[in-house]
């Protein structure tokens, strides 16, 4: 999370935002300016962000952001808080969680759809790590194959890496954050490093489905667009179409069976059908009684 430009010390900060509440993360390093991270929350992402805040020893709570404001307001908040990195969590329709990663105020920025969210309290895994220790960041080799994944790797490194010599951090590593690319998505996992070198998962878990990468902060020209991305609205529409098609197929089969039964009733009686009928003793007795 330390960026040096031309040999000069500079401010490297990031902000994690979700519509309502944010946390200011203040980092003091010898010979460097203050570094601050802001985290914004809403009700849906609160538990996930609480887990991420726990994993970030350089965080503290602060005031709120009006959800009616447009995303460009985040750049102003970053400027007021002296921040140049930002993560914004946006909730839509109370079910679709989107995550923005941005370098404010000039960009670039990336937008993700957050899927399969599982918090540490929900998973109850056996892994554990000391609060305040610095994490190792592990990236899949697929991040080095394409330019847009290289950009995302650098942004993740600056955001999730705990700065060295921070007052609230511990001077050792006992957990690792893994970012893996599979099925055109970025899978996040968090593990504890035990003494024999093996790993125990801690949590949380979530999957990032990349939507677009923009040239500016929260907008601008599109640098990369994921061709495999399907919006949640389109996914729900396809599910409704599939459900409707199954209902139509079931109705058509039911009507076809009813028409078939009606057609059977209209078949005339075969005149030669009785040729192969075997006369029983009961039928002979019934014929005698009639006579």
Features:
single chain, 291 residues, 6 helices, 13 strands, 28% helix, disordered N terminus
In short:
By secondary structure, this protein is of the alpha+beta class. It contains 6 helices and 13 strands.
Q: Note the beta-strand portion.
A: 25-35%
Compute the number of structural domains.
2
Per CATH, which architecture of the largest domain?
Answer: 3-Layer(aba) Sandwich
Can you count the helices? 6
CATH class category of the largest domain:
Alpha Beta
User: What name is given to the CATH topology of the largest domain?
Assistant: Rossmann fold
What's the helix-strand series?
EEEHEHEEEHEHEEEEEHH
Tell me the structural class. alpha+beta
InterPro entries: Brix, BRX1
GO molecular function: rRNA binding
Pfam families: Brix
Keywords: Nucleus, Ribosome biogenesis
List strands and helices in order, with pairings.
Blueprint: E1 14-18, E2 21-27, E3 35-41, H1 46-55, E4 60-64, H2 72-80, E5 86-92, E6 96-102, E7 109-118, H3 120-123, E8 133-139, H4 147-160, E9 170-182, E10 185-193, E11 199-201, E12 205-216, E13 219-225, H5 232-265, H6 281-290
Parallel strand pairs: 1-3, 1-5, 8-9
Antiparallel strand pairs: 2-3, 2-4, 5-6, 6-7, 7-12, 9-10, 10-11, 10-12, 12-13
């Amino acid at each position: 999370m330390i960026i040096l430009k031309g040999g000069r010390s500079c401010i490297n900060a990031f902000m994690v935002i979700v519509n309502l509440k944010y946390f200011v993360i203040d980092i003091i390093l010898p010979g460097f300016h203050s570094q601050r991270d802001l985290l914004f929350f809403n009700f849906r992402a609160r538990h996930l962000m609480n887990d991420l805040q726990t994993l970030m020893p350089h965080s503290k709570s602060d005031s709120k952001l009006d959800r009616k404001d447009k995303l460009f307001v985040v750049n102003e908040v970053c400027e007021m808080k002296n921040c140049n990195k930002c993560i914004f969590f946006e909730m839509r329709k109370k079910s679709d969680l989107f995550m923005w990663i941005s370098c404010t105020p000039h960009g670039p920025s990336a937008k993700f759809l957050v899927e399969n969210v599982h918090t540490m309290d929900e998973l109850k895994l056996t892994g554990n790590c000391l609060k305040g220790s610095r994490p190792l960041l592990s990236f899949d080799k697929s991040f080095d194959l394409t330019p847009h994944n290289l950009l995302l790797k650098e942004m993740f490194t600056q955001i999730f890496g705990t700065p060295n010599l921070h007052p609230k951090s511990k001077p050792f590593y006992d957990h690792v954050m893994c970012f893996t690319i599979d099925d055109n998505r970025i899978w996040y996992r968090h593990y504890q490093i035990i003494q024999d070198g093996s790993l125990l998962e801690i949590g949380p878990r979530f999957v990032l489905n990349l939507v677009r990468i923009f040239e500016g902060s929260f907008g601008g020209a599109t640098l990369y667009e994921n061709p495999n991305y399907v919006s949640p609205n389109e996914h729900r529409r396809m599910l409704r179409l599939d459900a409707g098609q199954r209902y139509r197929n079931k109705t058509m089969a039911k009507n076809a069976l009813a028409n078939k039964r009606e057609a059977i009733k209209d078949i005339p009686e075969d005149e030669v059908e009785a040729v192969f009928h075997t006369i029983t003793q009961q039928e002979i007795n019934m014929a005698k009684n009639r006579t």
